[in-house]
Amino acid sequence: MPALSRADASFRVRLPGRDELRRLVALAAPIVLVQVALMAIGVEDCMIVGRFSAAALAGVAIGSVYFFTVSSFGFGMVLGLEPLLSQAVGAGDSEGFARAFQRGLLIMFVLGTVTALAMLPSEQILLRVGQPAVIAGIAGPYLRVQAPSTYMLLLFSLMRTSLQSRGITRPIVLTIVAANVLNIVLSIALVFGHWGLPRLGPVGSGIAALVARYFMAGGLLVLAWSELRPLLVWRRESLAWAPLWQVFRIGSPVGLQLVLEFGVFSVIGLVMGHLGPTAAAAHQIALNIASLTYMVPLGVGTAGSVLVGRSIGAGDPATARRFAVAALSVGVGFMACSALVLVAAPAWIAEAYTNDAATIALAASLIPIAGVFQIFDGAQVVSIGLLRGTGDTRTPMIVNLVGYWLVGLPLSLWLARGLGLGPRGLWWGVVGGLAAVALIVLIRLRARMRGPLERIRIH
């Protein structure tokens, strides 16, 4: 039988067994919980400041978009370390694992500094891109108080990724759950001035997020000290320029991919800001809900990336392929169920965020559209995670450029302004962009899984 035919045959029968599904779910469940808990901090802040005022919600919404846009390259670099770490685990290469972690630590320090500095002129930047003064005036101080937390957020992400690649999740879960409780209590106290603390409004929510992020990094370091301590025994090889540059080259496409993804949603958010506080607040409610459900397939994709990477490191590509099918089935299946909920109960969901009638009405019209793109979103994020596990970090970057910026954004602007559909047109354009991304990465994943799967080697 010709080689291509053998590959086709193996691809057709590459179905996950009970063991692959069990191992995927066992790793994905705590990762999903952590992803949801991370996202929940932003959701909590929006719900709390939404009770303060609609303008406060809009300001925090735009501020959150700005924060995660300028932080996204750093988050992507951490994700880019995933295949190096998980493949090292599969190969039993503890020294390679430690070197990858330490090189990541050096890169995170530099990116944390750049990100923190980018927070300082946020108010002026938002004004220059046309945001109303009332929104920029709230977002700017909210972001400035959070600037020092960028180091801690990236450090937490790096430690978390290294632990997850080894299947260690309990300390991560405990830390992030406690951080959520701390954030809720502090945010309520500082926004509204309860329990003897000053009434700071939206800035209080930013201070609470700052404290929660420092707690996350410190708490995880303490709880997982026995696992992390060997990684902090410095290797001189970690400072070698050529391997450090190679790590950066692997991770930077993931960083750029996230910049492109967050960037298009940032542009949509800025356009919503031009439409007024009600549109910005309603958009943030719908985006919060969609982002919260997105955390589940993102966690499944991360677990799939780890398991695929481990299998490749162990020289077992057949198992890697079965894990890929299992991850796609679980991730897309969840998002189909999520879509039904968003389509069925949009007003009830919107009322959990605000008591402003106009904001509730507009958000209730956007949430079902968010439900429509759930399935596309699930397919693309799981596929990108699986590609990352194989070491393919460049394809998702190129696909995001095409899908979001050449298809989704122009379509959004045309529907919103050209056809006069307003906020709903912007969201339908996002659906088109997501559909394009999902289709292309699925095709690429299928081709990748048919070919040879080999470990990335950095010395």
Helix/strand layout:
Elements: H1 3-12, H2 18-50, H3 54-80, H4 82-91, H5 94-119, H6 122-128, H7 133-144, H8 149-164, H9 170-192, H10 202-223, H11 225-228, H12 241-274, H13 277-313, H14 317-344, H15 346-351, H16 357-372, H17 374-390, H18 394-418, H19 422-450
Helix pairs in contact: 2-3, 2-9, 2-10, 2-13, 3-5, 3-7, 3-8, 3-12, 3-13, 4-5, 4-13, 5-8, 6-7, 7-10, 8-10, 9-10, 12-13, 12-18, 13-14, 13-16, 13-17, 14-16, 14-17, 16-19, 17-19, 18-19
Structure description:
The protein is 83% helix and 0% strand. With 459 residues, it is mostly helical. The protein has one domain. α2 packs parallel to α9 (170-192), α4 (82-91) runs antiparallel to α5 (94-119) and α12 (241-274) runs parallel beside α18. The protein is globular, with a radius of gyration of 22 Å. Residues 1-13 have low confidence and may be disordered.
